[in-house]
Amino acid sequence: MDNKDSEAEIHPLKTEDVKAQENHENSVERRIISKQSSRLSRLSRWRTAAFFISLFLCLIIVFAFSFIIPCPERPVSERTWFRNYDNAVAYQFLAIEDVNEDKVQDVVFAFKASNSSSSFNRSCPDEGLLSPCAFVAAVSGTNGRVLWERPAAEEIEWMECGIKQLGGAEAPGCLVVGKPMSLTAVGLQTGEVQWRQSSDFGANYTVLTPVSVIPDVDSDGVQDLIIFIATGDKIKTFIHSGKNGKQIGSTGNLNVDGKARYIRLNPGSSLYFLFYTENSLYAYSLKDLYSAATGIEIKLPSLEQDPQWEKNIDHATHRLSLLSSGDINYLAKIPGRSRDNVLVVNSKMATLINAQNLQTLWTLNVSHVVSEPLLGYYKPDVLGIVFESKIGPNRKKVMIVESGSGAVQWDLKLNSREESPGPATLSTADHRSAFLIWGEYQVAGNETRSRAPLQKLYLFHPSYTNVLLELRNSTDQIIAFNAALFERSRHACYVLLRGPQPGEEPGSVSLMKRKLKEDVSESRVIWLSQVAVDSEQYVRDRLYRMRFLSRV
């Protein structure tokens, strides 16, 4: 008999007490477990309720933002629009700016007529001008609606838009250089005149363009303006306040040896103006020009002079010993790794000069360049220069040249009119460019020289080096042409201004915006070589899907 049985026989009452105590302990444990289960059950229900309440609130918020609270409306841009003016002439000027701040670019242009369009019904006498007069107009990039129109001058010599702080306003403005002798600042958003000043530019003058915005030199907190007026072999210098248009100091005089043009350059922290004629190159620092106009020597960071440049300038004549040969046709700024370089184009070659030490970087044989050199990207993020050079009667050659080395990356020969518009470029999402070129392509050996060349617009993209897309054929006289992204990194368009120019009989003036993709989908594919790598429709579809990039 084991110990437990013997213990039970010896102490029968003790065994019953133990059993009762065990039953009591078990009962207590069951009650504790039951209470714990009840608490956990209530906690679980609270958690479930909190989850569903949170979910319900989230659904209400999503519903409110989706249906009740309206989202900001995005402007719907028309693919093509026209704006027509009768009995008018147009000036060779186009600006692409966001006038009404809807994040879509708009078009600013100028025309001459007796009255504005029916949208505003303004006349020249409203601004104290003789009729007909020159109007400045802003047109919506989305649908071609007139945003504002303003009689600005009897004639427009030059106009420049996008000038910040003009008139002291927060929004940019447009500066109108008119004839006879007037400067007018117009607010870009409203078209209202900020200020108007008369200036004595003299007789038979020509404005050297573009007008330059310079740092604040009269300490009124607003950028100022410097205007160069050519009269014969002299250049007059006028410095005007950007805030109120008043002249700062007196008129300066620069002596040159012929018809001049200019560019501005920033070697380091200095600011220089380079004037070039057919035979000579002249350099003036902003400090020289300001001192000549005011007779005052002031110390401003923007008026510092570059020691390296000063060594190469003849201070008696201000000639710059940049190149030994003259015959300069174009001068252009080309962005370099750390600062801008100078591109010098004469009748036989193009030369890139290092703006820091004035040493030659490369030369390229290119003769009779007929349009201002243009920048674009043939290789991803590798800057290129587009040259158009005359190679015969009604013939031109288009070349894309790498800016760093001067190597020719691509070239094309076209028939071309004398008055043909220059090229344009649009940056694409693959960090290259789409090139828009005017002319008439003819297959080698099939050229027709007996008639005037047609005006056709072509698209070239480096992803297809042997393909041109013929976009459109225009028989009208094109006054101005430009291409731009009307929205950030999208909505690639080109703008055409057509009609008679000043000095011609008034007629119909037409402003057109056209979305590039509309022409790509209907374009004609031209193979520059006999080898067709893809079908024509595949090429159109691929270039139609091409995305664009807004570079800073």
Sheet bearing the most strands, described?
Answer: 7 strands, antiparallel
Which structural class do you get from the secondary structure elements?
alpha+beta
Mean pLDDT: 86
Distance between the termini: 101 Å
Number of helices, counting only DSSP H or I runs of 4 residues or more: 6
Radius of gyration: 36 Å
Which consecutive residue ranges, at least 5 long each, have pLDDT under 50? 1-15
Strands, count: 31
The global form is globular
Bin the strand percentage: 35-45%
Helix content: 10-25%
Biggest sheet, spatial arrangement of strands: 4-3-2-1-30-29-28
What report would you give on this structure?
With about 550 residues, the protein is an alpha+beta fold. It is built from six helices and 31 strands. The chain has helices at about 5-10, 10-70, 285-295, 305-310, 515-520, 535-545, and strands spanning about 80-95, 105-115, 135-140, 145-155, 155-165, 175-180, 180-185, 195-200, 205-215, 225-230, 235-240, 250-255, 260-265, 270-275, 280-285, 330-335, 340-345, 350-355, 360-365, 375-380, 380-390, 395-400, 410-415, 425, 435-440, 455-460, 465-475, 480-485, 490-500, 505-515, 525. The radius of gyration is 36 Å and the shape is globular. About 35% of the residues are buried.
